[in-house]
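Thread title: Can someone regenerate the structure for this chain?

I was given the following input by a collaborator and told the matching structure tokens would be attached. They weren't. Posting the sequence so someone can regenerate them.
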Amino acid sequence: MAAALGGRLPGPGQCIGLLGGSFNPAHAGHREISATALRRLDLDAVWWLVAPQNPLKAKAGTEPLRRRLAAAEAAAHHPRIVVSALEETLGTTFTADTIAALVRRFPRVRFVWLMGADNLLQIPHWHRWPDIFAAVAVAVFDRPTYALRALAAPAARRFARYRIAEETAGSLAEREPPAWVFIRQRLNAQSSTRIRATTQNPATPGGTRRRAAKSKRTKE
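Best answer:
Regenerated them for you:
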């Protein structure tokens, strides 16, 4: 565990945000959510849990774990964001199992699950998803075009009475679960899917611009 966390095990009473996903690739949106969480939720650190393989996504098109970890390290670039392959160390595949293992391993640490509004829409497809809300506090961050749909989605309705006001978000980590908050923030439209599409398809506008710019630099 210590090796997977770069030698930085959390101390009793610390509040740690958990941001999971494929990070295929990591981008500024991940960092922005993490920085907002550190500030708004009064966290000591945020751990990026880079999944060996997301069970809801195909292996095809997913970069090798070590390559994604290295890219995530470069994207994080923050003293309190820890990039890890903890799920590989724990031998877990599903978020509910990962969280349960961390709560058992660090019973005196307060964990907060961090996710974008798009995932609040999708979470009913996750394995034993209500167990996540039962085990740790949850912070949901606004993403472009998702807010209204996410807040009307089944997961939000099911746990509606446990939602706390955004202005009290700083106390979220100290609350007994279930407890969750919706954080409105400066919206970042970046997504791993969009980045992959732009990178893999040079015919897209973004790919064309980058290729043209590279050509221009070569000529200069």
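Residues 205-219 form the longest helix (15 residues).
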